[in-house]
Amino acid sequence: MPREACDAKRPILVVLHQERSSAGRVGHILERKGFSLDIRRPALGDELPPTLEGHSGTIVFGGPMSANDEEEFVRREIDWLSVPLLENKPYLGICLGAQMLARNLGGKVAPHHEGMTEIGWYPLEATEAGKALLDWPAMVYHFHREGFDLPKGAELLATGDTYPNQAFRYGENAWGIQFHGELTRAMMHRWVVHGAHRFILPGAQLGKAHLEGRMIHDHPLRTWMENFLELIFLRGETA
After folding, report:
1. Which Pfam families did the record assign (predicted)?
2. Nearest one of 164, 174, 182, 92 to 125, comparing CA atoms
3. pLDDT tens digits, residue range 140-169?
4. Which of 12, 46, 43 has its CA nearest to residue 27?
5. For residue 192, is pLDDT > 90?
6. What is the secondary structure of 1-19 as a DSSP string?
7. What is the structure's pLDDT at 236?
8. Which residues is 25 bridged to in the sheet?
9. Which of 96, 121, 123, 209 can bridge 62 by disulfide, Cβ–Cβ 3.0-4.6 Å?
10. Would 129 be classed as within a structural domain?
11. How far apart, in whole angstroms, are the C-alpha atoms of residue 189 and residue 15?
12. Does residue 7 lie within any of the structural domains?
């Protein structure tokens, strides 16, 4: 029996970075598919497990901190990513989680060379490698001021105009995406309110565009997110 089938219904380790953060739509999708969530917040003192033997895989979400910060929990978390990599366990990094994966693999994380941000809805273009895996949305939601170099040995799956590295795969089971597919409507409203001070940054969109864009672009993003999670965590389940 494939490893994915054996692990399929073990909990998924979910790493969040703020007290009020949640796994949002990603958590809802995984719970509907029979997974439970083991939620840890290293920024608040939670420990990460020394092995993922008891888990189906890991998802590391975003946060306001940088993968370049010197806080001890940031350094520990980046180093800890060697656990899913060495054990070949499914790993998904979203925004900060993707940047942490890039750092672990020797890539750089840095602001745009002209100070541009992606805060709002922006076009996405899948590479040939990405298209071979699944259909991708044409527009995705962002909330970041830094991007990452493509780590050596990684395969680029999707690209964008301002930040060219939008999604990648490393090895069999490690994945990173720069954009957000996890936001529920309530989460987006909170982000628009609490993040309004960032809408004056170069390239950022005003809050009205965030909410109007959701009405237009969210359905294909939601469909993609569900298919992507199945690709990562349910491959081979029925084999």
Report:
1. GATase
2. 164
3. 999 999 999 999 999 999 999 999 999 999
4. 12
5. yes
6. --HHHHHTTSPEEEE-SST
7. 59
8. none
9. 96
10. yes
11. 22
12. no
In the chain, where does DSSP find H-type helix? 3-7, 24-32, 72-80, 82-87, 96-104, 128-131, 185-194, 207-233
What integer pLDDT is reported at residue 9 of this predicted model? 84
Q: 3-state DSSP call for residue 126?
A: strand
What average pLDDT does range 82-102 have in this prediction?
Answer: 98
Return the amino acid letter for 132.
Answer: A
Phi, psi of 180 (to 5 degrees): -115, 120
List the 155-159 sheet strands across, edge first.
37-40, 12-15, 57-60, 91-94, 174-177, 167-170, 155-159, 125-126
166 in any annotated domain: yes
Hunting for tokens 């044409």 — which residue is that?
138
Per-residue pLDDT, 6: 43
In which domain, by residue range, is 205 found?
12-234
User: 151-184 as b/e, with b when 16 or more CB fall inside 10 Å?
Assistant: beebebbbbbebbebbbbbbeebbbbbbbbbbbb
Q: Is 73 part of any domain?
A: yes
CATH of residue 119 = 3.40.50.880
Count of alpha carbons within 13 Å of 125, Cβ hemisphere only?
8
Q: Which amino acid is at 177?
A: I
Q: What's the whole-number mean pLDDT along residues 53-80?
A: 96
